[in-house]
């Protein structure tokens, strides 16, 4: 079958004869994936590697090319994806996923047997694709000028990649373009609906059937789970309308994948992930139903393990999906979202290098002993620093880069093998790698039924790590390996049932967590719940505190015991910020103890340590005498050698505040003629005053003075009520006493009232 890119093949081979690098722009369906690579076989020495962004694309493209060459897969054409290698000694054209190439650099840094590398669908800008491009550019710059690099894409801004590939000693990089042959395409939008996605798909297909369906329908859904639900929703309609409903995603067998893309004797409804968005064309499709969603690679913020999250696609992806409907005849695309929604979407997806966790990338570079790498778009410095810190914390060795696992899981499997439990290590790595969910207890989850993908990963890991588990190890060895992979995720039960995390903060366990009797555990996966309280631990594994001792530190510090109101010396064994063991003892009566005691004393009412009225009186006396009293300094001094509020209360703070000469300058009491000692009252801004019964002042001709200041005298009747307040006692005796004497003698005849 003639494809648009066929006309471009002579120009492609001619450009590669003049220089090693080339950029090809061709829309979806132009045939670039299946026609360009085999066209280079007679023009390139050595192997030709075609990098595909997905395993399914690599498998299907290899099968298509082998079929067009009239050969069986594994002869001239083969493929290699994670844990799967189909090829032989005659294989020269190999379709591989991006990570396969980056790992090949570990054993073959200069790619000696490789003559050309084609980066297909480079516009998707996967992290491993960017890394592969940077490493290929480095190989060229270090002497492999014969190595050819071809970047192919449907929607690519060619200028940056052309500059990058041309900015090297091998010469400029041309850009070749071909226009696809698209038929008329109509675009329909759907009003917002609260119905489930599978119900929307079923309703749209039923509407197409009623209108007279011509050709096949390609439905884009986020993932396998949504595909299964949509297939169930279409079960009745397919029998009634004679439809063939077929899934298409990466977990299917090759036979199931071929069934979805091969011609059929009746209309097909193909329920696909975004694999059908690029890399391969499905003949016969005239209608596309676009959910507007896709599962894209991301990294769990808690585990760091790669995962897939459903999110809205960009405008560029929506355009690519729509183009699948108009390859052979006029087509239509029905978008299950509004036009306004489409226009609010980003024009293109953010490159993974700008948003992904980089520990696996940094590990690859460490293993290849590469410190500086020239990138098409440099990764953020903060992300690189975080990745370096994580690898150091996990004590990851460069040898672990050869494992097709994220660094944490590579560390887990490495330690499991070392501890004699390779089979359990493979099982746990498979469960965590696939995102298996069910029980929140890791050990229970490993023993539960698995998804097919988990089983495949386990089988592939077991083929590499053979050997039986040591029965004596029990669960201890595998849990220690899990701890080695997640050393920063240790947690401890609190009395209230919540968890304290070694990284700081708190979390909560599911109500029915199996191993609640264990005080310590590893919080492997935690879900942040900003609007619903504490984060929830989704997956955990119990551990013993003894396993933490090797990496624990001892800290001795003074702490305030609020209940006992005293300073204590606390010796704690810490794992990160988590206390494993703690002992308390009386604090030594040293300077730090005194400072902490004084600081806590200032936080409470000073009345805890003295009579507040007496303090005010002492301060007023000092003010009258012109003496400055520093309560804070006196408190500091009194705390020396003491550790508690009880000791401070009995230490006599008021006495410590009173200067020795204060009694001379501002005495507390003075003697009256009859011998009675009366208290002198001091108030700020007023003269001091005294009070007593009038008879007690008889014989005192002049007003008593302190520091030359006359006291205010309160003369009291027998009922202790004042009959006169004066600062002129002599004048009182002379002018007022006769009248006061007559009144008081009449009211109190039994008292002595001399003339």
What key phrases describe this protein's structure?
Rossmann fold; single chain; 755 residues; eight-stranded mixed beta sheet; 21% strand; alpha/beta; elongated; 35% helix
Q: What's the helical proportion of residues?
A: 25-40%
So what's the overall shape?
Answer: elongated
Write out the CATH superfamily name of the largest domain: P-loop containing nucleotide triphosphate hydrolases
- Parts with pLDDT < 50 across at least 5 consecutive residues: none
Counted up, domains total: 5
Alpha-beta classification: alpha/beta
Q: In CATH terms, what is the architecture of the largest domain?
A: 3-Layer(aba) Sandwich
Rg (CA only) = 43 Å
Per DSSP E runs of 2 or more residues, the count of β-strands stands at 31
Largest sheet: 8 strands, mixed
Q: How is the CATH topology of the largest domain named?
A: Rossmann fold
Strand content: 15-25%
End-to-end separation: 143 Å
The CATH class of the largest domain, by name, is Alpha Beta
Mean pLDDT across all residues, rounded? 91
* Number of separate helices: 26
Strand order of the largest sheet: 4-3-5-2-6-7-1-8
């Amino acid at each position: 079958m003639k494809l648009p890119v066929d006309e471009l093949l002579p120009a492609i081979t001619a450009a590669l004869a003049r220089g090693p690098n080339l950029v090809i722009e061709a829309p979806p369906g132009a045939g670039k994936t299946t026609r360009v690579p085999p066209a280079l076989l007679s023009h390139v020495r050595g192997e030709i590697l075609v990098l595909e962004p997905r395993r399914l694309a690599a498998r299907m493209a290899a099968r298509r090319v082998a079929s067009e060459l009239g050969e069986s897969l594994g002869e001239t054409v083969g493929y290699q994806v994670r844990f799967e290698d189909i090829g032989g000694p005659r294989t020269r054209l190999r379709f591989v996923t991006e990570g396969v190439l980056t790992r090949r650099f570990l054993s073959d840094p200069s790619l000696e047997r490789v003559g050309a590398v084609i980066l297909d669908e480079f516009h998707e800008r996967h992290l491993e694709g960017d890394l592969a491009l940077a490493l290929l550019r480095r190989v060229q710059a270090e002497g492999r000028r014969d190595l050819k690099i071809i970047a192919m894409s449907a929607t690519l801004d060619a200028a940056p990649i052309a500059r990058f590939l041309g900015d090297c000693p091998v010469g400029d990089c041309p850009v070749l373009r071909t226009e696809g042959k698209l038929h008329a395409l109509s675009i329909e939008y759907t009003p917002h609906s609260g119905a489930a996605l599978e119900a929307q798909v079923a309703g749209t297909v039923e509407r197409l059937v009623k209108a007279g369906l011509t050709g096949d329908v390609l439905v884009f859904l986020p993932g396998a789970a949504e595909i299964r639900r949509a297939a169930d929703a279409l079960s009745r309609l397919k029998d009634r309308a004679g439809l063939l409903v077929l899934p298409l995603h990466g977990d299917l067998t090759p036979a199931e994948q071929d069934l979805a893309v091969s011609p059929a004797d009746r209309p097909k409804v193909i329920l696909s992930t975004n694999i059908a968005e690029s890399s391969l064309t499905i003949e016969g499709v005239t209608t596309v139903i676009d959910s507007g969603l896709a599962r894209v690679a991301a990294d769990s913020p808690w585990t760091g393990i790669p995962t897939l999250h459903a999110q809205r696609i960009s405008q560029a992806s929506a355009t690519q999906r729509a183009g699948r409907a108009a390859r052979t005849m006029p087509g239509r695309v029905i978008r299950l979202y509004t036009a306004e929604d489409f226009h609010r979407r980003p024009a293109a997806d953010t490159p993974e290098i700008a948003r992904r966790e980089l520990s696996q990338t940094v590990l690859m570079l460490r293993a290849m002993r590469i410190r500086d790498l020239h990138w098409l778009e440099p990764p953020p410095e903060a992300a690189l620093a975080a990745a370096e810190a994580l690898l150091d914390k996990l004590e990851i060795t460069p040898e672990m880069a050869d494992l097709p696992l994220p660094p944490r899981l590579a560390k887990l499997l490495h330690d499991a093998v070392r501890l004699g439990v390779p089979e359990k290590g493979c099982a746990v790595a498979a469960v965590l790698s696939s995102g298996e969910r069910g029980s929140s207890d890791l050990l229970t989850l490993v023993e539960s039924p698995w998804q097919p993908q988990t089983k495949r990963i386990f089988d592939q890991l077991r083929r590499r790590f053979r050997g039986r588990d040591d029965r004596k190890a029990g669960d201890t060895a595998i849990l220690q390996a899990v701890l080695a992979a997640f050393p920063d995720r240790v947690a401890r039960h609190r009395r209230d049932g919540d968890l304290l995390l070694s990284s700081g903060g708190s979390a909560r366990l599911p109500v029915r967590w199996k191993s609640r009797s264990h005080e310590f555990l590893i919080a492997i996966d935690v879900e942040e719940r900003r609007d619903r309280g504490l984060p929830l631990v989704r997956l955990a594994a119990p551990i013993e505190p003894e396993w933490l001792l090797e990496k624990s530190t001892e800290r001795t510090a003074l702490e305030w015991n609020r209940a006992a109101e005293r300073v204590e010396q606390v010796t704690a064994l810490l794992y990160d910020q988590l206390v494993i063991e703690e002992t308390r003892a009386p604090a030594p009566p040293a300077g730090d103890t005194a400072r902490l005691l004084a600081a806590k004393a200032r936080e409470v009412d000073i009345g805890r340590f003295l009579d507040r009225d007496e303090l005010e009186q002492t301060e007023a006396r000092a003010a009258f005498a012109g003496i400055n009293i520093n309560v804070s300094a006196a408190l500091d001094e009194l705390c020396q050698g003491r550790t508690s509020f009880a000791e401070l209360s009995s230490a006599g703070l008021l006495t410590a505040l009173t200067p020795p000469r204060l009694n001379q300058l501002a005495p507390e009491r003075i003697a009256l003629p009859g011998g009675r000692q009366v208290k002198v009252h001091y108030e700020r801004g007023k003269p001091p005053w005294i009070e007593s019964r009038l008879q007690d002042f008889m014989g005192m001709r002049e007003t008593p003075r302190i520091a030359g200041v006359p006291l205010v005298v309160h003369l009291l009747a027998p009922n202790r009520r004042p009959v006169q307040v004066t600062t002129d006692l002599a004048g009182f005796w002379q002018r007022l006493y006769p009248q006061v004497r007559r009144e008081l003698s009449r009211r109190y005849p039994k008292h002595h009232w001399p003339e």
